[in-house]
Design a protein that fits this description.
single chain, alpha+beta, four-stranded antiparallel beta sheet, 47% helix
Length: 371
């Protein structure tokens, strides 16, 4: 290719300007060759972006989000800034998927273990009364827990500030921070208050003749305040907001020992679905410790994820869709579904949702069958 052909291949204005600045100088031909290479790299990147845009044009909004998250995770390594944390127990036993309404108690079994939640009350900064709070539910309650557990782990403190950081977290998860009666601020505040007011019990059974019940309320205190007129206007509503949350010391100590890392980029892909978040947490926990293939029947899976779907046939179809969406983000995930249920295969660290720390498989191997 002659020099004129090379010059003709350089089209971008900034690169053409570099050519003109070098014209007549020493090693002009070599400089042109280098600039042409940069133009070709740009062209290739633009072509690839165009192909991705064309492929995503036919996708729905949620599928586009999953595809974008997959691309980011595949091309950018997991770094500490990408990691959030949640208590491993909460990764195994989820909250209600939908609003339980006036129901004040919720129970769920997972294997030999059980979770029991009881709704509580909070002192109102407006009326001074102890006002009843409902049970926490849905994806926002799970995301609030993920955020609060993460802040406690990062700050190494059971007491954390949440007034501003939760709004930032909402934006990170793709939620517009809006006020008003139906705004996202109010929705997240409501779930935070429900979580802070509830009490939690975890029941453990060895399958023979020994059982124990652990009373582990997640929070010791929640500070509420009555917003000023300026603050209320900024929020678009007059509801109380929390400044600080203090974890119960026993829960915090246990969290530090059993914090499950979660890739925040993956959580963002499923931020609108409680069951998909549960599946993300649960699969991440299982695969970090798996030493041999794990087989789960549809009855097992229905007990774990289908508490609010009485018909196992419709649950199976919905669950297959959830697993397919998870695999869109993690194509190498060693998960297979068939007529009998699900099989999880031991995986190399690169296939896991979050690669385990060195030695974690050996440490957790003995715990695998007990949860």
């Amino acid at each position: 290719m002659g020099i004129e052909d090379r010059l003709a291949g350089i089209r971008d204005a900034d690169l053409r300007a570099e050519v003109e600045a070098a014209r007549g100088g020493f090693l002009f031909a070599q400089i042109v060759e280098h600039i042409l290479h940069r133009q070709q790299v740009r062209d290739a990147e633009a072509s690839a972006q165009g192909a991705v845009a064309g492929r995503r044009a036919g996708m729905g909004r949620d599928q586009r989000r999953r595809d974008a998250v997959r691309e980011v995770i595949e091309n950018q390594p997991t770094v500490p800034e990408n990691l959030q944390h949640i208590h491993s127990v909460l990764a195994l036993c989820g909250l209600p998927y939908r609003d339980p309404g006036p129901v004040r108690e919720f129970s769920r079994d997972y294997g030999r273990n059980s979770l029991n939640l009881v709704a509580g009350r909070l002192k109102s900064p407006v009326t001074g009364e102890m006002e009843p709070q409902g049970l926490p539910y849905g994806p926002k309650a799970r995301l609030v827990l993920l955020h609060l557990c993460t802040e406690a782990v990062r700050q190494r403190s059971p007491t954390i500030e949440v007034a501003d950081s939760l709004s930032g977290f909402m934006r990170e998860m793709g939620f517009a921070v809006t006020g008003g009666e139906r705004g996202t601020i109010r929705q997240f505040k409501e779930q935070l208050n429900r979580l802070a007011a509830c009490s939690m019990q975890i029941g453990l059974w060895d399958g023979h003749d020994q059982a124990s019940t652990l009373n582990v309320p997640p929070f010791r205190s929640l500070d509420l305040w009555r917003p000023s007129a300026r603050e209320g206007a900024r929020d678009g509503e007059g509801a109380a907001w929390s400044r600080t949350v203090q974890f119960h010391q026993d829960f915090y100590d246990n969290l530090i020992r059993h914090a499950l890392p979660v890739d925040i980029r993956a959580a963002r892909a499923f931020s609108g679905s409680a069951r998909k978040l549960d599946l993300l947490f649960w699969v991440g926990y299982r695969l970090r410790a798996l030493q041999r293939p794990l087989r789960l029947t549809w009855t097992n899976l229905h007990g774990q994820f289908g508490a609010e779907n009485a018909c196992i046939r419709s649950f199976r179809q919905a669950f297959k869709t959830d697993v397919a969406h998870l695999c869109e983000v993690f194509p190498k995930l060693p998960v297979a579904l068939d007529d009998g249920g699900m099989t999880l295969q031991p995986a190399d660290p690169g296939m896991l949702l979050v690669p385990p720390r060195k030695g974690i498989r050996k440490m957790q191997a003995g715990k695998e069958g007990s949860l």
